[in-house]
Every structure is written in structure tokens, then in C-alpha cells.
């Protein structure tokens, strides 16, 4: 069957689509350390159960299941989200700056294509990633090819076990035409896959650069502030004019309801709502009504600060300790400083095979990870660092995490020079 260029794009996808396929058909008994699903935290699950139970008893569940909402979303929910973001950022935010979408993945598909590709004056613009690695889900989202302009990071080795990526500000000087090429700047905070949280000063630097180029700065807060707030290092939620920020209920513990929020200028928000009406008619209602009850009660803040954040921080510490205790000391590896999100990012030097080549061997050994090269959109394929890294999820049961880490260590040791 013949497909258009649009259809072939999905047939040949290499990013999130391929990953989801692999995660959907693991070998029996595999340790699934490759996925991004949030953990089922009992205290959080109990909150959802209570909210839905009340909706059933009151009869309001029928409304969430049986009606289309406005493409803009539930008015009160947009007002509540605006109020929360105003309080958290210390700035005045109104409901006409809030869009509701079917998850942040859906939102960024639209946003990245709004600000890249061919413009009305015939110019072509790209998405600028100011620091790599970046989220695998961006890789296949653009409708036009060659839509990424990416800057390599500055790498700081902290000690014999850890390191951290920083924005290399010199890139903005050495790439003299970046302002002509870029239609937007995009960064996730914390970053999937590395757990890196760009510092407040780095974020302020990106805000200044986006203003200088008169382009928006897109910030993906899927794991960040203010919900779910899975940020281990001290930093701030910042919003200033020119920024467009995405949020999601998924990592709060509701990935199945596919509900996301976008904070931006009213013109972009209106454009998102119009696109939503064409693509989806409207955003799914169940997640909106659950979020509305959660935000009305104010319980979201307690959940994020006192339940969700400490849960994942403990998981991160557990996984890092397992690696340091179980992997051969002769292995030349470092763990990216874990500052947030659900993953560890491992850099292993002096391997006989690339991580991509090791992937099927690891799969055969009964452990699923995600090779690093898929997290470097628009980068030079000759940069060997891409093939020396992989993402490991610590959002599984402790026995599975432990067994998976031990299996990974055995394979790496076998192929270490």
C-alpha cells in the first residue's frame, strides 16, 4: 500500500513509537527498566479512588463520561490551574493563558509544529535544543524533516561515580546564525532521560536568549513544578513573558486519563484550542473532572511534597546504591547526577560494543533499558558519547530493580575493555 510522506513518517518512526512497541512485547521474566510509567503509589491511588467514588455517588461521573466539553476545556479547571501557577510563580496568570490538551505529548506535537517548519514568508525554522540529551518523544513529532538544531552539553565529572550536563553557553556564540535558524527553544525540566534539572540561572539565560531572538521558550514540566514536583535539587518554578510551559497529570499518577495543560500567551493558547477542536473535538473529560476535584481540595500540594517526591527520591537513592555496590569497580562508568524525574542515566566508557549493539544482548539476558542514541535529536552521529549511555528506570518493584541492575552489570563487565 502506498502512503503519503505523512504516513511514511509513522511507518519509519525511530523514537517513542519504536520504544513503546518494544516495551509492549518483552521476553518472559524480563526486568522492565526501560519504561516511563509512574509507580502505583498506594496513598496516591487512594486519592483517585476517593475522588471517583464521590463522582459516582453524586452522579457527576455521568457528566464526565457522557458530554463533550468545550475545546478550551472546563472553564473552572482552567481558572484553578491559572490560580495555582500564579501562586507558585509569583506572577499574575489568567485562565485565557491556559489550554487543556490530551496530555503534554499531544500538546508538544502541536507546539513544536507551530514553531518549526516552513513559515508564511517562505523561511524554514528549526527547534533549538540548547542541551542534549533530550526527551525521546520529540524525535518523530515534527511534520517536516531536518527540524532540529541541537547544542552539545558541557560535561562536568563530579567524582569517580557521578557527572552532570550543563548548558554550554559558548554554543550560542559559535553558531552565529542560530537566531535565523531557530523558531523556538525547547527544554525539559527535569529532563527525561538524564534526570538533569537545568539551574535557575541556566533557565534565566535561555529566557534572555529567546527574547534576543524574539522566539518562544518551550519548557516541558512533565516531571517538574508544580505537579508532580519530582525535583530533588533546590530550584524554582519560573514563568516570564515569552515562555510556553507544559504540564501533565501523567506523572502525578494518572497516565491513563491523558490530560495536560499549557501555559502561554493568549494568542498561542487560542491556536492550541482551535487545533484541539479539529484534531480531537475536545480534550478527554474524566481527567479534567478528577483534576478539578483534586485542585479544588488543595490536596495536590500535600501529595506532591509529602508523598510523591519522597517516594521517587528514595527509589533513586536505592537504584544508585545498588549500582555502586554491585557493579565491578573496574567498569569505567558514571551516573548522571540524579536531580529529578524517574530515571538514571548511565555513561559507560571503553565498551567493546556500542550500547545499541548491547541492547539485544541485554534483552536476551532478561533486562530492558533504552539505548542513549535516541535521545540526541539533531546531533552529530559521530559523537561517540551517544552510544556510551543508556536510560534506566527506577520506577519498579525493588526486587525487579535489583535483579535488573545485577544483570546489566554482568553484561557490561563481559564487554568492557
UniProtKB/TrEMBL annotation:
Its EC number is 2.6.1.66. It comes from the Bacteria. It is an enzyme of class 2 (transferase). InterPro entries: Aminotransferase_I/II_large, Class-I_PLP-dep_aminotransf, PyrdxlP-dep_Trfase, PyrdxlP-dep_Trfase_major. One of its GO terms (biological process) is alpha-amino acid metabolic process. GO terms for molecular function: pyridoxal phosphate binding; valine-pyruvate transaminase activity. SUPFAM superfamilies: PLP-dependent transferases. Keywords: Aminotransferase, Pyridoxal phosphate, Pyruvate, Transferase. Residues 53-407 form the Aminotransferase class I/classII large domain. GO terms for cellular component: cytosol. Its cofactor is pyridoxal 5'-phosphate. NCBIfam families: PRK09440.1-2, PRK09440.1-5. This is Valine--pyruvate transaminase.
Amino acid at each position: 500500500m502506498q502512503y503519503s510522506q505523512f504516513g511514511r513518517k509513522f511507518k519509519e518512526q525511530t523514537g517513542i513509537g519504536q520504544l513503546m512497541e518494544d516495551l509492549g512485547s518483552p521476553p518472559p521474566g524480563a526486568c522492565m527498566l526501560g519504561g516511563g510509567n509512574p509507580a502505583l503509589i498506594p496513598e496516591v491511588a487512594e486519592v483517585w479512588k476517593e475522588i471517583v467514588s464521590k463522582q459516582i455517588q453524586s452522579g457527576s461521573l455521568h457528566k464526565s463520561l457522557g458530554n463533550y466539553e468545550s475545546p478550551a476545556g472546563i472553564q473552572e479547571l482552567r481558572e484553578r490551574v491559572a490560580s495555582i501557577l500564579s501562586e507558585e510563580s509569583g506572577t499574575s496568570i489568567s485562565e485565557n493563558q491556559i489550554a487543556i490538551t490530551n496530555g503534554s505529548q499531544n500538546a508538544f506535537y502541536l507546539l513544536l509544529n507551530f514553531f518549526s517548519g516552513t513559515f508564511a514568508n517562505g523561511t524554514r525554522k528549526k527547534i533549538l535544543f540548547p542541551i542534549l540529551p533530550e526527551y525521546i518523544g520529540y524525535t518523530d513529532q515534527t511534520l517536516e524533516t531536518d527540524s532540529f538544531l541541537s547544542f552539545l552539553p558541557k560535561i562536568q565529572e563530579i567524582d569517580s561515580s557521578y557527572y552532570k550536563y550543563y548548558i554550554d553557553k559558548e554554543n550560542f556564540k559559535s553558531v552565529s546564525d542560530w537566531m535565523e535558524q531557530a523558531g523556538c527553544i525547547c527544554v525539559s525540566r527535569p529532563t527525561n532521560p538524564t534526570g538533569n534539572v537545568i539551574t535557575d540561572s541556566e533557565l534565566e539565560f535561555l529566557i534572555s536568549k529567546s527574547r534576543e531572538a524574539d522566539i518562544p521558550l518551550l519548557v516541558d514540566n512533565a516531571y517538574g513544578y508544580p505537579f508532580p514536583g519530582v525535583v530533588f535539587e533546590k530550584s524554582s518554578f519560573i514563568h516570564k513573558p515569552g515562555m510556553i510551559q507544559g504540564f501533565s497529570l501523567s506523572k502525578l499518577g494518572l497516565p491513563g486519563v491523558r490530560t495536560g495543560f499549557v501555559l502561554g500567551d493568549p494568542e498561542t493558547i487560542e491556536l492550541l484550542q482551535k487545533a484541539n477542536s479539529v484534531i480531537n473535538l475536545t480534550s478527554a473529560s474524566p481527567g479534567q473532572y478528577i483534576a478539578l476535584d483534586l485542585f479544588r481540595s488543595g490536596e495536590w500540594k500535600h501529595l506532591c511534597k509529602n508523598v510523591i517526591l519522597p517516594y521517587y527520591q528514595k527509589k533513586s537513592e536505592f537504584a544508585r546504591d545498588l549500582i555502586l555496590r554491585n557493579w565491578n569497580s573496574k567498569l569505567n562508568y558514571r551516573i548522571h547526577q540524579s536531580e529529578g524525574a524517574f530515571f538514571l542515566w548511565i555513561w559507560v566508557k571503553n565498551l567493546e560494543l556500542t550500547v545499541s549493539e548491547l541492547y539485544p544482548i541485554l534483552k536476551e539476558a532478561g533486562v530492558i533499558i533504552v539505548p542513549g542514541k535516541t535521545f540526541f535529536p539533531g546531533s552529530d552521529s559521530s559523537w561517540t558519547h551517544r552510544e556510551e549511555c543508556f536510560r534506566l528506570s527506577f520506577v519498579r518493584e525493588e526486587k525487579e530493580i535489583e535483579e535488573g541492575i545485577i544483570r546489566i552489570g554482568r553484561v557490561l563487565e563481559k564487554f568492557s575493555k
